[in-house]
Design brief:
This protein is mainly beta and 457 residues long. 6% of the residues lie in helices and 48% in strands.
């Protein structure tokens, strides 16, 4: 077959167009994960909270709404959420409100109508409400799953005895039985998770028996808990002496339980807490082989003979037999322009650490919200050192940090300005760069927690 010059030119144009289309088709835009954010509705702290669903674009990190969301969180003031069974079920912890209708729960004026609401995660990230479950204490405020996803644990700020919060006038003998003579305590309510239905079933305490001979329905922890985390086979509760209303702060010591992976039982590793030498701990987070305690109090740092003061600090620990051992690299200062660290993540490759700071609570320091970034060095000892160019901007008052399933982007959900902020992770330097697209997503009200689902079918 012969072609004229015109025919040859037309054929070459068609081939070129086909080549271009075949190249660009390899770079198609698709959703790589769903980002879920719990929060409240502006000017409606006593009504039901919300769950917002956001699609994450694989190429750009762009955020767009999941159809049909946001929806009700199943109760007032949601504060934590967990995805289980391969992302098929979402559980939301709703703190409820006080008798007066406010969100500031205390032992004397506890939150009412607290619950755990289960949702099925359907196609395109749509959520459908399923069942509602309840803890065995009052003022629940933290919820995590074990690393296998078989068990769900909720931290109640106040345990109950004879139907009332334990106190000096209502001493709780179960606290004393588990915690070396304590008369008041918080508790952990534990559940098994049905992998088919997501249904929760209460795990009773096999070590402590109630007065009527029945098994105790919770696991006591020291009074004034602030946060808890799983590290290896241990559950560690950070507790303090001054945490009286939510958000609870003042963490000063850690109490360990050992998790039995076959039945979800928590067994006391040692019946006394380990002092950490701090007084304003805000969170405890497990990241790989290291446990991090975030502390919101000043630290004096001397580098190359120059002394500076950081408004807060990060304490890295290893765990040995249920006890924390300080890493040889020592305490790490927070970025001096930030304060009130609330959460921390280690990125997927284990090279960088990022710390979310709420800010706005340090006297005499112009502290801001933002993300502090660190390199991880493991030789000769474990150390964290600042990434050049940090800190990185977020919305105001970040509550959480998540890395997307493709390990390209980091997101924060922000309380003070009701937003989600996205950043691009530089895999070489660890810098969090701005996105090429809009990197802010507006919410209906203040954000309280966020999590990401890589199951997108």
């Amino acid at each position: 077959m012969k072609f004229t010059k015109f025919g040859k030119a037309l054929l070459m144009s068609a081939l070129s167009a086909g080549l271009v289309l075949s190249v660009t088709s390899c770079n198609q835009s698709y959703t790589v994960g769903y980002l879920y954010v719990t929060g409240t509705v502006t000017a409606q702290s006593s009504g039901d909270g919300t769950i917002t669903g956001i699609q994450i674009d694989h190429n750009t990190g762009k955020m767009s709404a999941i159809r049909g969301l946001p929806i009700s969180s199943g109760g007032a003031n949601p504060v934590r959420a967990v995805l289980l069974s391969g992302g098929r079920f979402l559980f939301v912890l709703n703190r409820g409100v006080t008798a007066s209708g406010g969100p500031d729960c205390t032992t004397a004026d506890p939150c009412q109508n607290s619950n755990i609401t289960e949702y099925a995660v359907g196609g395109n990230g749509v959520l459908t409400a399923q069942e509602t479950f309840y803890t065995q204490g009052i003022n629940p405020f933290r919820m995590i799953a074990d690393s296998s996803g078989s068990y769900l644990f909720v931290l109640d700020h106040d345990s109950l005895y004879n139907g009332s919060p334990s106190s000096s006038t209502n001493p709780n003998p179960y606290c004393a039985a588990a915690l070396a003579g304590a008369t008041t305590c918080g508790d952990i309510t534990a559940f098994t998770v049905n992998q088919t239905t997501g249904r929760l079933q209460l795990i009773v305490n096999a070590q402590v028996t109630a007065a009527n001979g029945a098994a105790l329905p919770y696991f006591p922890v020291p009074a004034n808990p602030v946060d808890f985390a799983q590290a290896s086979s241990y559950f560690l509760t950070l507790s303090g002496t001054s945490a009286t209303s939510y958000p609870y702060t003042g963490g000063a010591s850690v109490f360990p339980y050992t998790l039995n992976p076959t039945n979800g039982q928590l067994t006391i590793s040692q019946n006394s807490s380990q002092p950490l030498g701090i007084a304003q701990g805000t969170a405890i987070v497990s990241g790989g082989s290291v446990v991090y305690v975030l502390d919101n109090e000043p630290i004096t740092v001397t580098v190359d003979g120059a002394t500076t003061t950081s408004p807060s600090q990060i304490l890295p620990w290893s765990i040995q037999g249920g006890a924390l051992q300080a890493e040889p690299g020592g305490i790490v200062p927070d970025d001096p322009t930030l304060s009130n660290p609330t959460y921390l993540i280690v990125e997927s490759k284990g090279k960088f650490v990022y710390v979310a700071n709420q800010g706005n609570n340090t006297q005499g320091v112009n502290a801001q919200s933002g993300i502090a970034g660190y390199f991880i060095t493991t030789s000769p000892v474990y150390q964290l050192s600042f990434i050049p160019g940090e800190p990185y901007g977020t919305g105001a008052g970040p509550q959480c940090l998540v890395e997307d399933p493709s390990n390209q982007f980091i997101y924060t959900a922000n309380f003070n300005d009701s937003s989600v902020t996205g950043r691009v992770v530089d895999p070489n330097s660890g810098a969090l760069n701005k996105m090429r697209v809009t990197d802010t997503y507006a919410l209906q009200g203040p954000a309280t927690w966020c999590l990401v689902d890589g199951r997108t079918n």
